[in-house]
Amino acid sequence: MGAKDVLSRKAGVITGDDVLKLFKYAQEKGFAIPAINVTSSSTVVAALEAARDKNSPIILQTSQGGAAYFAVRPSPSNACPDQNASIGGSIAAAHYIRSVAPLYNVPVVLHTDHCAKKLLPWLDGMMDADEAYFKEHGEPLFSSHMVKYNIETTAKYLKRAAPMKQWLEMEIGITGGEEDGVNNEDVDNNSWPEDIYEIYKTLSPISPYFSIAAGFGNVHGVYKPGNVKLQPVLLKKHQAFVKEQTKAKEEKPVFLVFHGGSGSSVDDFREAISYGVVKVNLDTDLQWAYLTGIRDYVLNKKDYIMNQVGNPDDRYYDPRVWVREGEKTMSKRIAIALDDFYTAGKL
């Protein structure tokens, strides 16, 4: 038996009860699903290729900046104010992923990442698109969204998402470091059991479709070994406290998310997964992996790509060749994560 056996939709973008079933299955079987920040059709393909080849589910997500990059190059006369570029880019990415994901025969959770207070207009625009898509198709355009603000605001958005059975992720505590223009260096990046229970107590009466990204020393970016002290054991305490307070039958009543996964040790990943983490965000490591394939290709073919005229083989500068090298190295790095998180072979 694999994850596909519990899903009504076996391949392509999944929503609603299928997302809930997938995350429950991940907790039961002790694995987590990597969440890949995608910024282009090329990075989407690299992630889907890894999932297909490893027989694994995958989460594809856009950040606000990554979404804008996916589709829009603003000009002085068309600056796309009021998050229009990010709204349009996210919607374009969603339709593209919905089109190609079934071709890879894997289930995909389509998510959006890092929506802080100042970015809430971006979320509003995407949820407008969700509701329009739901009216026509009976499901939201996106599988899930993430809110990085207070409990009251998250509850408001979960109430809006609930009729569509749309998943919502809330970050509590602050993930340190910097990513995609969001700088949280020099902050306390731990959360505490009482925090997690307060979120669970507020959100669970609204909808079961939510998860919590609980800080336990997480940091965005990659840092030298020893500079980041993760405390995955905090997640165990969170689960125990919520179970005690709610008298839950489940040992791990909360679906937890690991932010700032790049550069973390395999042991930290696996310990966190054992405490109920079902989603692990990866971005910086994959940016580097994508670059290395293109970098090495350019260095190896330098003598052939300095001039167009006289090049013995135009395939050396065909984007389908050198862009593909970045896809291959990114895909290989995702495959490593699928092994590290015990995701490989779970379909």
UniProtKB/TrEMBL annotation:
Broadest EC class assigned to this enzyme: lyase
Cofactor(s) it depends on: Zn(2+)
Residues at which Zn(2+) 2 binds: 171
EC code(s) of this entry: 4.1.2.13
Binding positions (dihydroxyacetone phosphate): 221, 260-262, 281-284
UniProt-listed GO biological process terms: gluconeogenesis; glycolytic process
Active site (catalytic residues): 113
Family named by the database record: Belongs to the class II fructose-bisphosphate aldolase family.
Name under which the protein is recorded: Fructose-bisphosphate aldolase
Protein's organism: Trematosphaeria pertusa
